[in-house]
Backbone:
């Protein structure tokens, strides 16, 4: 069961004058990806068939992810009465197909799948932390604080499972690095761009490049160096690397520069 509910959010404290439209657009897009957790749950249950204990954890994870989507959807509709969360979600669900979907992980192993999930939860935890720190709107700040905490716990859940499977499968360091790099590159696939489109401008034709730029400028513009450092540290830990090493520090500086470039992509066109 979720550790909090919609009733724990101070909806009455909403201050629309303190909400930027960029953050609202990101929140509406995030509502769709979070609410779509059932797609990922089906895949994880196929990949981890026979691991009943992990399947139960995945079921709890799905409930919490869907709650994130519902809360963000409610917030989006409160801040923008023209936002139809259910309609936007249907457009997203029907138009975005999760890669893979078979009985085997597209990462090549169960350990690889779990490592990829750690990378995803690292990204979501840092995203909501950064958004919560960036906004002055009290309700969005409270929502982000709650969700960021959940996402960090989800990271720990997948990390613990990874530590059970890694000794059995012996995923090599080069293989682990390939999984991490591959999953990071997938942030440029259709999921986030299409969610942005469905949530914010479904009345116009879908332009993947344009929506990807709009999303990137708003999302990466939230990050500060300490967020980049946290992302790298959590990723290194999951990959079995030292998060306190010089390599981690160098990678953090590189990631921070890359985030800055993504936040300054021209929006014309």
Residues:
């Amino acid at each position: 069961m979720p550790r909090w509910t919609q009733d724990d959010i101070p909806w009455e404290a909403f201050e629309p004058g303190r909400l930027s439209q960029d953050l609202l657009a990101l929140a509406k897009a995030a509502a769709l990806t979070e609410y779509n957790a059932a797609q990922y749950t089906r895949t994880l249950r196929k990949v981890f068939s026979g691991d009943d204990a992990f399947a139960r954890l995945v079921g709890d994870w799905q409930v919490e992810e869907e709650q994130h989507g519902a809360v963000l959807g409610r917030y989006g509709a409160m801040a923008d009465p023209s936002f139809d969360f259910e309609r936007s979600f249907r457009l997203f669900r029907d138009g975005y197909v999760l890669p893979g979907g078979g009985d085997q992980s597209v990462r090549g192993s169960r350990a690889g799948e779990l490592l990829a999930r750690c990378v995803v939860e690292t990204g979501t935890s840092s995203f909501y932390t950064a958004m919560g720190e960036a906004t002055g709107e009290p309700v969005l700040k409270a929502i982000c604080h709650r969700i960021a905490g959940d996402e960090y716990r989800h990271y720990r859940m997948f990390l613990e499972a990874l530590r059970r499977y890694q000794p059995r499968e012996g995923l090599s360091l080069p293989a682990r690095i390939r999984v991490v790099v591959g999953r990071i590159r997938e942030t440029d696939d259709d999921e986030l761009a299409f969610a942005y489109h469905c949530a914010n401008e479904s009345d116009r034709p879908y332009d993947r490049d344009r929506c990807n730029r709009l999303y990137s400028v708003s999302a990466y513009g939230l990050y500060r160096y300490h967020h980049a450092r946290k992302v790298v540290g959590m990723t290194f830990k999951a990959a079995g690397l030292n998060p306190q090493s010089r390599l981690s520090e160098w990678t953090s500086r590189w990631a921070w520069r890359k985030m800055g470039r993504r936040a300054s992509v021209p929006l014309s066109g």
